[in-house]
Write a structure and sequence with these properties.
The chain is of the alpha+beta class and 269 residues long. The protein is elongated. The strands form two sheets. Strands 3, 4, 5, 6, 7, 8, 9, 10, 11 and 12 form a ten-stranded mixed sheet that branches. Strands 1-2 form a two-stranded antiparallel ribbon. The chain contains four helices and twelve strands, in the order αββββββββββββααα. InterPro entries: Autophagy-rel_prot_27 (IPR018939), Man6P_isomerase_rcpt-bd_dom_sf (IPR009011).
């Protein structure tokens, strides 16, 4: 059987979806009407080979306009136009069209539709199974390729998997690779809390001390700074600390270096 015929059966499967939907385009509690007409390019896998075809799908009514310059789908036997909710095309030719509902079901965040072809179609024994899962967008999004099985080419099964937000009655799952919305900011841990307490506490201490000096003791200018004497000497204290550290490091180097143990006999040049 030609790959194009397999794709045609895929189109038939989509037609079945429309058949499952009732007059107001609902399948159970799911409203499929916002999906509209969708043109999909999908590969069909059959007996280790794959081929690319185009499907035009409208879950709420027959597809009457073919994609690009392709000829409109007609039955291979009777020659009559085969309106289908799903039609399958090669580059310029119609392969098949399916529109006979044989079964459907709706569950939690999922739905399925089974389709068959009419008796005057080119493949009346082909069966299509369409599986819809909760997704991120309204438009049908294919999941994998069309999988075709069956030993008899006259009676094949076509499995289609799509996602759409129209079958979501729970929380919409995040897309692959990460969450959809803005990421939650990391929680403040123990170190973060310590830093906040220290800086906020120091700020409050300075403000309270300045107000106390100003109101209660009548101080003005630099006298309002808490521990003003300490801050005046702060630069010199830093300098002394650096000098002290350098001297200690030099002493350690001399004790462990090539002149270690020579004591006062070694002099720096």
């Amino acid at each position: 059987m030609r790959p194009s015929l397999f794709l045609a059966s895929v189109a038939v499967v989509l037609v079945g979806i429309a058949g499952v939907v009732n007059g107001d385009c609902k399948l159970g509690d799911f409203d499929l009407s916002p999906i509209g007409t969708v043109q999909l390019s999908m590969e069909q896998d059959y007996q280790g080979a794959s081929a690319m075809y185009t499907w035009v799908v409208n879950l709420c009514g027959p597809v009457s306009v073919p994609p690009n310059t392709a000829t409109e789908c007609k039955a291979k036997i009777s020659g009559n136009v085969l309106p289908g909710y799903v039609t399958e095309y090669s580059t310029n030719n119609c392969q098949t069209s399916w529109g006979k509902l044989t079964g459907n079901s709706a569950g939690y965040n999922a739905a399925s539709i089974s389709l068959g072809q009419t008796d005057d179609s080119n493949h009346p024994l082909w069966t299509a199974n369409i599986y819809l899962a909760c997704g991120q967008t309204v438009t049908l999004t294919p999941v994998g390729n069309v999988n075709v099985t069956g030993a008899n080419a006259a009676a094949l099964n076509f499995d289609f998997h799509f996602t759409t937000s129209q079958v979501c009655n729970g929380v919409v799952p995040p897309p692959p690779g990460g969450p959809t919305g803005a990421e939650e900011p990391p929680a403040c841990g123990g170190g973060c809390a310590f830093v906040i307490v220290v800086f906020v506490g120091a700020f409050v201490y300075v403000i309270v001390t300045v107000l106390f000096f100003y109101i209660q003791q009548g101080k003005r200018g630099l006298e309002l700074i808490p521990h003003a004497e300490f801050w005046k000497d702060f630069a010199s204290l830093i300098k002394e600390g650096v000098v002290f550290s350098v001297q200690k490091i030099r002493a350690l180097i001399c004790k462990s270096g090539p002149y270690a143990g020579e004591g006062s006999s070694y002099q720096q040049v």
